[in-house]
Amino acid sequence: MIIMIPAYKPDHSLVALCTELADEAQSRGACIELLVIDDGSGAEFAPIFDRVRNTARTPVTVLKLPENRGKGGALRAGFEWVQLHHPGQSVVTADADGQHLPADILTVGAATESYKLVGTSAIVLGVRTLDDQKTKGQKVPLRSRIGNTATIGFFALATGRKIADTQTGLRGFTPDVLDWVISVPGNRYEYEFSTLLRVTRTDIVLDQVPIVKVYEPGNPTSHFRPVRDSLRIYAPLFIFLAASFAGFITDTLALLFLVSCGLNIIAAVVGARIFSASINFAINRWAMHDGGKRPSTRSSVVRYSVLALMLLALNAGLLEALTWAGIHLLVAKILVELTLIPVSFAVQKRWVFSAASSVQAKPKKLTQQPEHQRIKVSVYPL
Asked: What is the rounded average pLDDT of the residues 161-174?
């Protein structure tokens, strides 16, 4: 089993992590090899990587990348290295900042190996749901709480599945999914989130193993850029909201134009809605596509039309109900739109523009239950 740790400008916690991993593996009788990826950290960090290579009491390879590729690029380079030098080995990825306990890393590794042994393609997530007894009462940083909550909600909206920790970097991969994982686009933090979004459209088992929550005060070694990397992660949602706003503006302008041309109000409303819907369809068909073969235009048009009619009926019904209840028309309109926007996004992402048939991975079916599933946290549809 290969434990892969991408690192960019690490501190000495990387050395401690590798040493403790080797000790934990020895105490468990586990056979591991460490692959540490120097993601273009620079010459000043070479002594830390030298210490990693010379200190850990287990085979260690330091893969040096000539320039910083971002976390996604570093992980992809590591997967390719494993396929070239250790084909058939499971891979467990862990963060370099020491926020994953060695015992938890090996537990995720054992779960991954159990899937490998029964011939099942799987990705195993170490989800941070257990309190650290040594630091009980220590609060999770606000930035992490907000990020976790937002991505869990977005993931559920986009896929219909609930995952306890979408931001975890502790993940196990059986050997037969590596080709598929390498094919996922993205070079930075969005790569890991994109992997989760895409795997829900495959037959690959997505499992969750509870691990301890460990947060360093201030998270000093994190290179996550809150604004830029969040924009990358939430790009599909932001584009969808922008497209919805553009559709609203287009619909309004087209309505005014058609009325000024002498059309009656009903004809103008229908014409404006068809025009704005066409623009919205084109934008969302591009925005919702995250790789693989696109669904046919005809199929998407039919589904989009069904959704549009459904939303139109809901819009009219809710407006009628709210105004009947005495709510001002403008306030009712805003409430209805805010309610239907997430519904529209979820249906378009999961159904209208879904490309489930484009999945290349062809995993084997589960033939027996791995032992670790007794502690499995289920992935289930909402």
From this structure: 89
